[in-house]
Amino acid sequence: MLKQLNEILFSKFQGTGNDFILIDDREKKYTQSTEELFRLLCDRKFGIGADGLILIRNHEKANFEMIYHNADGKKGSMCGNGGRCAVVFAKKLGICKDEGTFIHENTLYPFRVLSNDFIELTLLNQKPEVKQLHNEVNFFVNTGSPHHVQFVSDVENTDVTLIGKKIRNSTDYQPNGTNVNFVQVLDKDKIYVRTYERGVEAETLSCGTGVVASALSFLTLSRQNLAEVIVKTKGGNLIVQFLQNGSINLIGPAMKVFEGKTLV
């Protein structure tokens, strides 16, 4: 007997190469969906293919709620690039306009659309603790997601997958693991970041919360007090902005790639 297939409508977005499946779930069709389904949709061989999947739902205290799943199908912590993509998607659905807020895991995130595809997202309301680890070039910062940050002299020739996987699974970060960022200083206000992401279990072209964690670690390492840091990633540039009130903005593009439907 043939399995009955269900049709899923989706949009595919990317923010500096970090790509996501976006689904309008205001009717709550996917509240009982399994990790297996989301993992299949994110699979680049057998599904749509993405670093993560985002459901958009109504919320009484914000313009919308963002539910984020990593590529492994499990619910994920905050995703900065995904958050910007969610804003553009929600605006296209008519849920929000150029300014507003969304909820993720009981935290409110203000946003502002600077242009059609350029989004300012307030990722943090206050500066988090930057912990210096066993030597002066290693740090840990939680920016809504946990991040190990390691400064290197040549990030292009760093084995991000091998070293990142080892740190991600080290005993220091058990049981949940951590994301791992490798950072090269390019200028007094510019860094280059490559990230190994837990949940994807590979290097991604960009990681929004990792970019912010790396910028915070850079300011600590360099003992500077900058208004903004420019961050180069493999997928493009992002800006981390430090406001006088203590909040931190992540600014960058979020673009729709295509939309379609899939049968599962």
Key traits:
single chain; 264 residues; alpha+beta; Diaminopimelate Epimerase, Chain A, domain 1; 2 domains; 17-stranded mixed beta sheet; 17 strands; 17% helix
What's a concise summary of this model?
The chain has 264 residues and is α+β, with helices and mostly antiparallel strands. It is built from 4 helices and 17 strands. It has a 17-stranded mixed sheet that branches.
Question: Mind explaining what this structure looks like?
Answer:
- By secondary structure, the protein is of the alpha+beta class.
- The protein folds into two domains: 7-112 and 254-263, Diaminopimelate Epimerase, Chain A, domain 1, CATH 3.10.310; 130-246, Diaminopimelate Epimerase, Chain A, domain 1, CATH 3.10.310.10.
- Helices cover 17% and strands 43% of the residues.
- The protein contains four helices and 17 strands.
- The protein has a 17-stranded mixed β-sheet that branches.
- The protein is globular.
- The model has no long low-confidence stretch (mean pLDDT 96).
